[in-house]
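for the writeup, i need someone to sanity check this before i put it in the appendix. the sequnce is what the collaborator sent (i think, or maybe the updated version? ugh). structure was predicted straight from it, no edits. if anything looks off just tell me and ill rerun, i have time this weekend
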Amino acid sequence: MSTPVGSSQWMYTPASGFYPYLIDQSLRFNAADSAYLNRTPSSTSNQKTWTFNTWIKLGNMPVASGSFATGSIFSAGGGVFNKRVDVQFYVNDGFYIIIDQRLDGGTYYILESTDSFRDMSGWYMFTIIVDTTESTAADRIRMYVNGTRLTNLSNTNGYPAQNSDLYVNTSGLVHYIGETHHNSADYRLDAYLAEVNFVDGTAAEPSNFGETINGVWVPKAYSGSYGTNGFYLPFDDSSAIGDDESGNTNDFTANNLAASDVVPDSPTNNFATLNPLFNSVSQAVLLEGNLKAETAGFTSSAFGYGATSTFAIPKDKKIYIEVECTDVAGDSWFAGFATQTSIETGVAGNTGSDGSINVYNRSVKLNGTEIDYGASAGLGGLGVAKLAAGDILGCMCDGATGKVWFSRNGTYFKTPTTDDSGTTGDPDNDSHEIGTLTNGTTEDIFLVLGGGTNANNIFVNFGQDSVNVASAESDANGLGTFEYAPPTDYVCLAASSLSEPTISPNAAEQADDYFNTVLYTGTGATQSITGVGFQPDFTWIKGRSNARRHMLFDVVRGVQNRLITDDTNNELTMTDGLSSFDSDGFTEGGNLNTGNTGETLVAWNWKAGGTAVSNTDGSITSQVSAAPDAGFSICTWTGNGISGATIGHGLSSAPELIFSKRRDSSGMWTTYAKPAASDAETDYLRLDGTDALADDSRIWNDTVPTASVFSVGSGTSHINTNSATHVTYCFHSVDGYSKVGSYVGNGSADGTFVYTGFRPAWVLWKKSSATAGWFLMDSARDTFNVANTFLRPNASDAEGTAANSTADFLSNGFKLRGTGGDVNTSGATYIYLAFGTSFKYANAR
């Protein structure tokens, strides 16, 4: 129900024209409150054909108690177990439908998706269509997520018989949303629902409720008939939560739901919450739509981070957040901001490390140094002993500078000193901050909570849930509502507050204008491969069903010239390899390595800058095809054997990942990976091998790449040998589209969560701290989670499926789901390169 930190209505102004149809609110179901809606039809209508459609943002995962653990989305049933129809989200992380007819002497049917749906940071659209009149049994129950039909299904006892009557739309049977007739904690929903449509008598396709715009599934207003017992619940009247606006007046009764459970978090304005996928030795229990942290999961001995936000602080915005503890407060909890690295090293108790600024009672920990304001100065120099129950801690961070401020009930903390000599903070004028986060301008920053066992109810308001608000203060955009007025130019942490990425679904250029994956089948003859969506400048092809070489072609070296990543071999001209890059793909010859009849293949394609141009930024002239906006370039150059030689790469920022290969002779794929070490310029990896990060000044000349050139050494045959020809592929991160990053594995099946700021479509991993192969997965081969289909760039092996090295691709990053050493060895450092679609618009996956 209502959570502290506020409960008044909000002001909502969409910040983007991307969505043709806006949804302004949702209804929050808190399982612990037994919150649900119910209605009993007065007449029986169509029992054979109906459609249920809703947008859903998941709360915490259902927890098993006994043999059941589900979150019921929609249900109809009587007072007995065996007379029901349930649409549920369950503990094994999928959707399923139960049709139980045993009361009538029939049987029961359970149809369940074996795909996993456990992305709590974004919104799904879920559609279930029941039509027992269908002649094809498998079409009598269909389930869709974001407009795509689920086909990875298991069922018990097949499908209902043709033309059979089910219990939905039966008079006298209670119909529920968020609960079942069991009225049991095992079945209660913990989620946000928006735009609930139930269509009686029609098998309404998902296209009636949503549409694809620039690769994103977005809401669409339903305009068809609802039938006799149909209903439409937009939740736009907090005083009449269950009001049916279909015109049928099939209103639902709200149970244990309050006006404050109608919130502005929606599919067209996604708000930050706390992240249940964050892994920590002291993970909090999250409730109230993941806005309440119960610190039963905190442990005093670990005193580590217990929760983080699902959004990072945007680098071009100033963010205001309110945090409140409603019972025992004081030494047992803290709140503040931390960078990704600090979070990874802080989970074992090192909460005061570089890259974190946290409030601890009278003191703050500032990048590893604790500063006590002194007994007389008290909390924040404000003269009070500590945060009392009900006090609201304002947390402010300027994403551009990494500066942090705090306030208590609207009064700003002083700058931290051991006496009372500090100066009152002034975020309105960007002065007298608590401190500046180490690496805060380069790393992602998150709100963090943590502490011991005495503070049991900590509530966070990112702008969407201001309960008990007297003044209803708005942020600078009018999108968020808070108890206290945010400083000038500060905004809530929501998608509509975020600036438009350069590459995004609402920009002139989308992600699939620069990167795309296509799957195809070989014919053994020349064939044109289409569906790329642009003319590629770099194409990487790999046979999936058989052991085949990884073959790389690009526009700068010439379309017929092949390199392979799984060996040190020199470049080879293949007249029957690729013959052309085309406007929507490429044409390949009939070589067995690329076109064996019946063989399945994958092609990853990048757009650079088309025909190469001469670049004289370095001491060696290079030929470059570059896409500076997309952070990718292809360079060819000829070595001069001189240490300290520089090569122009054509980008506008320094490359963070570089793959370089000698073309005229054998030589390893020398790899520069900035995230692998603080002195990455002294080290190298091998794309063609499994070696750990190694030191060798002869590779990158111990020189950090710049925004215009990278440097090379001499003395090795692999790079910059005099007169040797080379190709170099350069990458740097682009907000909302690509990321070169690193993380530390935890060795758990509940693996490390890695924030990218976009929904990944392709991820390449390498353990850099120890020996291990490269590991590559994409969303074209694994269309739903969990992703476990992999290829290895350093090996010619056929495609495999991993039991332990798996990951969920999420709306804001990826979550490791296995203990395998390829992606998640405890304490190991991994680097990755990822491409995807901006989190600002991404659906949950």
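Helices lie at 340-346, 592-595, 697-700. Residues 628 and 651 are 5 Å apart (CA to CA).
thx in advance!!
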